[in-house]
Amino acid sequence: MILIVVEHANGKVSKSTREMVTVARELGREAPVTALVLGSGVAPIAAEIAKAVDQVLVADLPALSQYDSELWSAAVAQIATEGEASIVLIGGSRSGREYSPRVAIKLDAPLLEDIISLKASGDKLTAQHYTYLARVTETIEAMGPVAVVTIKPGVFNPATPRTEAAEQFDVDLNLPTARLKVTGKTAERSSRVSLTEADIVVSGGRGVGSAEGFTQYVEALADQLGAAVGATRAIVDAGWRPYSEQVGQTGKTVQPKLYIAIGISGAVQHLSGMNKSKTIVAINRDAEAPIFKIADYGIVGDVPQLVPAILAELKK
Amino acid sequence: MRILTFIRQVLDAEESVHVANTAVALENSKLVMDTMDEYGVEEALRLRESGIEAEIIAVAVGPGRTQDALRTALAMGVDRAIHVETDLRLDAIALSKVLAQVAQKEEATLILSGGQQADWDSHALGAATAERLNWPQATWTSALELKGTTLTGKHDVDEGSETFTLELPAVITTQQGLNEPRYPTLPNIMKSKKKELRKEPLDQFNVTPKVNFISAEIQVKNRLNKVLDGKDVPAAASQLVDLLRNEARVIA
Ligand SMILES: Cc1cc2nc3c(=O)[nH]c(=O)nc-3n(C[C@H](O)[C@H](O)[C@H](O)COP(=O)(O)OP(=O)(O)OC[C@H]3O[C@@H](n4cnc5c(N)ncnc54)[C@H](O)[C@@H]3O)c2cc1C
Ligand SMILES: Nc1ncnc2c1ncn2[C@@H]1O[C@H](COP(=O)(O)O)[C@@H](O)[C@H]1O
C-alpha cells in the first residue's frame, strides 16, 4: 500500500494532506492509497479523509492526544511494516520533517525530504527537491523497495473529495512513552489571513524604519489588499514583529500570487522563503538592492513617501 | 560529560551558486561552517561556561577541505575534532549512522546539530541520529539549559513554540535565537593549532548511501524587472498600481 499520514488541526484535515493524496494517485501504482489517522477524538477527521482515499486506518487513542516524534514514528513504522507499505507519505510541516527520519531509520528506508515532484517507474522512485536555500532544483532517486517521503506544502493540487467514502479500520498500536516532556505552549495568533496560504503577502524589512512604520505602511497596505503580512529576520530580531511572521530560511516559506517586499534588501536567506512567488514587487531606495534582481515590478524610492501614495491610488 | 557538535562545511551565503556537469560546483567559492551548526558549537561552549564539566568534540564528515570548518570550531573553543574523511556524498539517513557510531565510541551524552543544512536543506540528521541511538531529541531549539542531567528549553513546533524538559542522553537541533556565535580570537586561533584533529576513514562505519543524487540545475524564473524611478512619487505609485491591475492582473 501507499501510506499517507493524515495531518490535521482544529478538527480538520490539512490542505497538505489532500496534496499528498494527489501525489499518491499520480504515482499510478496499483497499491491502495491508505490514510492513517493518529490522534484522540479523530472520528470526524477519519470520515473526512475517507472521501479521498481507498481505505482509512484509525488509531483514536488518548495517548495520541498530543503529537510526539517518538510516538508518531513508532505508530507509522508499525503500520507501514504490517501493511507492507512501499511508500510512506508525510507532510512537510515541522513535525512531519521531525519524525519522518525516525520512520526511515525504523524501516531501514531512504528519506526523500520536502519533495516537489515524485515519479515511480517500476520499483524506482525519482523525486525533485530544492537545495542551496531554494536556489537549486535537485533530482534524487530512492534506493530500495520502501521509501519515506515528505511533501513540500503548497506545491501539488489538493485532491477533491468524492461522494462515496472508503472503509475505515481501527488499528492497535504498540506505543513507547514520550520522553520529551512539554511544559508549556505558545500558539501563534494572528487575526489576519494565514501567511502560508494567502494569495497576497506584504512583507516589511528594516527599511520601514520602526515598529510603527510597519503598522503604518505594511499593515495598512495588507489591509487594503486583504493580504497576510510577513517580516524579515532583521526586524524580528529587533522585536518589531513576532517570529511567526518571519519569511525565509529559518522562518516560513510562502509562494503567493503576489509578494510585495517593502524596505527589504533581499538577502539569500530571505529570498529562499519567497523566491517561488508568482509576481514579486519591491520598494527600496537602493537601486542596487538584490531584491530588484528577482522583482517583476519595483520602485526605487522612499517607503514613507511611496506607500501612502500607493494606498491613495488603490483607494481611488 | 562529553558533548558532540556535528558540523558541516557549506557555501558561504553571500556566494552565488554554480552548477557544472549537473552538480553544484564548489571550487573557487568561499566555504564556511554552516551557521546553523555554529549555533550548536556556541551552545556547547556556553553550557560549559555555565559551570558544567564537559569535553566538547566537533565531528565532521566530508572531503579533505572539511577540516577547515573543524579548525574554525577548534578556534571557537571546542577541545578536539574528528574528521571522517570521504568524497562520497552521504544523505542524512546514511550520515546519521556515522554520527551515532562516533557518539557511542566517545560515550557522548549530548549531541548538537544544525536544524537545517544550508546546502541540502535537510532537517533530518538530528532526529535520524537520535533514532539510531534510541535517544529522545528536541528540534528547532531556540533556548537551552542543562542542570544535572536534565535539559530544559524552548523549541519551535507546528504553529508555535513549546517549552520542554528532556533527560540526557539527547540530541538537540538548533534554531535562530539560540545564541549569537562568537568569532574566534587570535589567541584562541593560535591555541587551536595544537589541538587534536583526528582523521578516520569512512570504511569502518559500514555505510551505504540511501539516496542517489542524479542531477542539479538552477531554474531561474524569468522576472520582468520593470523598475520605476520613485522621484515623482504620485506618478510612480499610479504606474505601479496600473501595472499590477492591468498587466500582472494580481490585484482588483
Ligand atoms: C542562519 C541565518 C538564517 C537567516 N534566516 C533569515 C530568514 O529566515 N529571513 C530573513 O528575512 N532573514 C534571515 N536571515 C538574515 C538575512 O541574512 C538578512 O540579514 C535579513 O534578511 C535582512 O533584513 P532586511 O532586508 O530587513 O534588512 P537590511 O538588509 O538592512 O535591508 C533594509 C533595506 O531597506 C532599504 N531601506 C532603508 N530605508 C529605506 C527607505 N526609507 N525607503 C526605502 N527603502 C529603504 C535599504 O536600502 C535596504 O535594502 C538569516 C541569516 C542567517 C545567518
Ligand atoms: N553569522 C551570522 N550568524 C547568525 N546570524 C547572523 C549572522 N550574520 C548576520 N546574522 C543576522 O542577520 C541579520 C542582519 O545582520 P547584519 O547584516 O550583520 O546586520 C541580523 O538579524 C543578524 O543577527
Explain this structure:
The complex is a heterodimer of chains A (316) and B (252). By secondary structure, chain A is an alpha/beta fold. Chain A folds into two domains: 169 residues, Rossmann fold (3-Layer(aba) Sandwich), CATH 3.40.50; 116 residues, 3-Layer(aba) Sandwich (Rossmann fold), CATH 3.40.50. Helix content of chain A is 27%, strand content 29%. Chain A is built from eight helices and 17 strands. In chain A, helix 5 packs parallel to helix 8. The model of chain A has no long low-confidence stretch (mean pLDDT 95). Chain B is α/β, with parallel strands linked by helices and 252 residues long. Helices cover 28% and strands 32% of the residues of chain B. In chain B, the strands form three sheets. Chain B has a nine-stranded mixed β-sheet, sandwiched between helices. In chain B, strands 2-5 form a two-stranded antiparallel ribbon. In chain B, strand 10 and strand 11 form a beta hairpin. Chain B is globular. The N and C termini of chain B lie far apart (62 Å). The model of chain B has no long low-confidence stretch (mean pLDDT 96). At the A-B interface, helix 3, helix 4, strand 7, strand 8 and strand 9 of A face helix 3, helix 4, strand 9, strand 10 and strand 11 of B. Bound molecules: flavin-adenine dinucleotide and adenosine monophosphate. Flavin-adenine dinucleotide sits at the interface of chains A and B.
TL;DR?
Chain A has 316 residues and is α/β, with parallel strands linked by helices.
Which architecture of the largest domain in chain A does the CATH hierarchy give at level 2? 3-Layer(aba) Sandwich
Number of separate helices of chain B: 6
The CATH topology name of the largest domain in chain A reads Rossmann fold
In helices, the fraction of residues of chain B equals 25-40%
Structural class of the secondary elements of chain B?
alpha/beta
Q: What compounds are bound to the protein?
A: flavin-adenine dinucleotide, adenosine monophosphate
Biggest interface, CB < 8 A: A-B, 89 and 80 residues
**Poorly predicted regions of chain A:** none
Write down the Rg of chain B. 22 Å
Average predicted confidence as pLDDT of chain B:
96
> How many DSSP-defined strands of chain B?
15
Distance between the termini of chain B: 62 Å
CATH top level assignment of the largest domain in chain A: Alpha Beta
Strand order in the largest sheet of chain B: 11-10-9-12-8-1-6-7-13
What is the share of helical residues of chain A?
25-40%
- Main beta-sheet strand count, sense and barrel state of chain B: 9 strands, mixed
The chain-level structural class of chain A is alpha/beta
Shape of chain A: elongated
Strand content of chain A: 25-35%
